[in-house]
Amino acid sequence: MNKNRGNGFAVVLIAIGAILLLGALGPLIHGLFRLVFPILLVLIGYYAVNRGHKLIGFAVMFVGILSLINKLAWLIGPLLGIALLVWGISVLRGSRPRRY
Q1: How far apart, in Å, are the Cα atoms of 13 and each of 2, 18, 72?
Q2: 45 lies in a domain?
Q3: Which domain holds residue 21?
Q4: In the prediction, which pLDDT does 44 show?
């Protein structure tokens, strides 16, 4: 019986610790959910298209894709720039005759 007596206090300590941890990790969790929601929209749209609801499925998927592009613009821009640089260099190298 003595073991059950301190459980209430332990639960309160765990709850306070979880609240403090969530407060400290708030920006990280917020950033994660910013990406999870558009991905869920894309998946729900894909599911709707597969179930035969093409119009609403493509509309939901379109909104999810646009939202993902908006959220990942900081990554897409530099990657596009790097890809264009590599492509341009490969075009320049391909136009010259190679001599060994």
Answers
A1: 18, 9, 38
A2: yes
A3: 2-95
A4: 93
Report pLDDT digits (tens) over 13-45. 788 788 777 777 777 777 777 888 899 999 999
Report the length, in residues, of the chain: 100
How far is Cα 46 from Cα 78, in angstroms, rounded to an integer?
28
Is residue 28 in some structural domain? yes
SS3 for the chain, per residue? CHHHHCHHHHHHHHHHHHHHHHHHCHHHHHHHHHHHHHHHHHHHHHHHHHCCCHHHHHHHHHHHHHHHHHHCHHHHHHHHHHHHHHHHHHHHHHHCCCCC
Looking at residue 32, its pLDDT comes to 75
| Residue 100 belongs to a domain | no
Whether the pTM exceeds 0.90: the reply is: no
Give dist(CA 92, CA 59) in Å, integer. Answer: 41
Number of domains in the chain: 1
